[in-house]
Design brief:
The protein is of the alpha/beta class and 308 residues long. It has helices spanning 30-38, 81-96, 112-123, 136-139, 141-152, 171-181, 199-214, 250-257, 262-279, 299-304, and strands at residues 16-23, 56-62, 65-71, 99-104, 129-133, 159-162, 224-233, 238-247, 282-291. It has a six-stranded mixed sheet, with helices on both faces. It has a three-stranded mixed sheet with strand order 7-8-9. Helix 7 (199-214) crosses helix 9 (262-279). The radius of gyration is 20 Å and the shape is globular. The chain starts with 15 loop residues before the first strand and ends with a helix.
Length: 308
């Protein structure tokens, strides 16, 4: 799934090409939309907010051209160094894109501080902006359309769309408009690439996704994953991975490992199966849990984990 590069040798002529940032507060469905457009899952999706921490690029190529979608961390008021990194990443993605799609969801009447922060970022950029009301299947098209019209009144957005990323409703209409307004140019990636992320990064994200799925509501935000060893053996169709899971308290370590190691084994099995599905190769996965007190507030640890 990883890209084979973005140099001149990988460009092709003709059609539309450009970068579209998916921006919004946490848990509005940005990653679900990206996965829906690509038809495969490259961004982790959970019911918990602030799941995405890094820039995730999805490459969509068809006869009309190529769009590189940039999934971003949800914009929120940062409370620690990790959150500050996430917000900076989202702001940088918005500034570098050709078009920004502002995603909102069925919490239409609950804008609050996070939505104001998103709009503040949008007001500081000069590229075209579109508003995308997601999860319209939950609230009904009439109510969602009323909200879309209200948001369009301020003149911040060039167009507004109603979609359900989960069911696919309205996604093609959004794609048609993006192909219309993006510039003409060569593709940046080979047409069979779906992401520019290496398999090593995807492995980290899949392990982190399983931690989110298996653990309690609060613990995943104190969890990080580092791939310490990644070895591919094409002759044996095998990938060997050793990953370290960082937590901030000894009590959290116990929760991740579980009684008799059952929780860690369940997480490892689920992650291994997902990795084998995504890569088409056998995966040997070793997981270890380490305690680094308050790692999410320490610049040195954030740099080590690639978050600074």
């Amino acid at each position: 799934m990883a890209s084979r590069g973005m140099g001149e040798e990988s460009r092709r002529g003709g059609g539309t090409s450009g970068f579209v940032a998916l921006l919004g507060r946490p848990n509005v469905g940005k990653s679900t939309l990206l996965n829906r457009i690509l038809g495969v899952r490259i961004a982790i999706v959970t019911s918990k907010p602030q799941t995405t921490r890094d820039r995730v690029a999805g490459i969509y190529t068809e006869p009309r051209g190529q769009i590189i979608f940039l999934d971003s961390p949800g914009i929120h008021r940062p409370k620690r160094a990790l959150n500050e990194f996430m917000v900076r990443t989202a702001e940088r993605i918005a500034a570098e894109a050709d078009v920004v799609a502002h995603i909102v969801d069925d919490r239409l009447r609950v804008e609050g501080e996070e939505e104001r922060l998103v709009r503040g970022v949008l007001e500081r950029i000069s590229v075209p902006r579109v508003i995308v009301v997601n999860k319209t299947d939950r609230i009904g098209e009439a109510e969602a359309d009323l909200r879309r019209k209200e948001l369009m009144e301020g003149g911040l957005y060039s167009r507004g769309f109603l979609i359900s990323a989960r069911k696919g409703f309205g996604v093609e209409e959004l794609l048609e408009y993006l192909f219309e307004i993006l510039p003409e140019g060569p593709a940046y990636y080979p047409e069979d690439d779906l992401t520019d992320l290496p398999v090593r990064f995807l492995a980290k994200e899949i392990i982190r996704e399983k931690l989110f799925e298996f653990l309690s509501d609060e613990l995943p935000y104190s969890v990080a994953v580092s791939i310490e060893e990644f070895r591919e053996n094409p002759e044996r169709n095998l990938i060997r991975i050793r990953a370290e899971i960082y937590v901030e308290r000894e009590s959290q370590k116990g929760m991740v490992i579980g009684r008799g190691g059952r929780m860690l084994r369940a997480i490892g099995t689920a992650a291994r199966q997902e990795l084998e599905k995504e890569t088409g190769e056998r995966v040997y996965l070793d997981l270890f849990v380490k305690v680094v007190r308050d790692w999410s507030r320490k610049e040195t640890m954030l740099r080590r984990l690639g978050y600074a």
